[in-house]
Design goal:
The chain has 141 residues and is an alpha+beta fold. 28% of the residues lie in helices and 25% in strands. It has helices spanning 2-16, 110-127, 129-135, and strands at residues 34-36, 46-51, 54-63, 73-74, 88-95, 101-106. A 6-stranded antiparallel β-sheet has the order 1-2-3-5-6-4, covered by helices on one side. The longest helix is centred in the C-terminal third of the chain and has 18 residues, at 110-127. The N and C termini lie far apart (47 Å).
């Protein structure tokens, strides 16, 4: 009977003990050197780049919300029922942290936006310091 009691106490202790979370420490700044990964093809929604030896990944999205200039950021995006309005390319990093949506470009034609947006997100992460600053600012987990 003592053995069963000890087993129950040990089990209860394990269930009620503290849970330790994993912490990610990654320093990403506008000055971080990034390269766009060559396998990001047009026509995809996902993009990747390598920044300071860290693989970052995200998505591109075509919205009806005009960001105005490359690097503008937003927490939420809008879309329109009129697909001709969804021509503004926005990018969001999802890993290693979640960024705000960062504006890239008005494609004028929504079909081109949908086809090229994610590819251009990767390219801007690699080659545009203003875009990178916005992408790496205000990140969450």
């Amino acid at each position: 009977m003592k053995l069963i009691w000890l087993g129950l106490v040990a089990g209860a202790a394990m269930v009620t003990s503290s849970v330790y979370a994993v912490t990610k420490c990654v320093k990403l700044t506008a000055g971080t050197t990034c390269t766009a990964d060559t396998f990001v093809d047009a026509g995809q929604s996902d993009w990747t780049a390598t920044c300071g030896g860290v693989l970052i990944s995200g998505i591109g999205f075509c919205s009806s919300q005009d960001g105005g200039t490359t690097g503008a950021a937003s927490n939420v995006l809008t879309t329109s029922l009129d697909e001709a309005d969804n021509r503004y390319c926005w990018c969001r990093m999802l890993s290693p942290a979640v960024s705000r949506w960062v504006f890239y470009l008005d494609f004028e034609f929504p079909g081109r936006c949908a086809y090229y947006c994610a590819r251009n997100c990767a390219g801007n992460a690699a080659g545009n310091a203003v875009f990178r600053t916005a992408l790496f600012s205000g990140m969450t987990d």
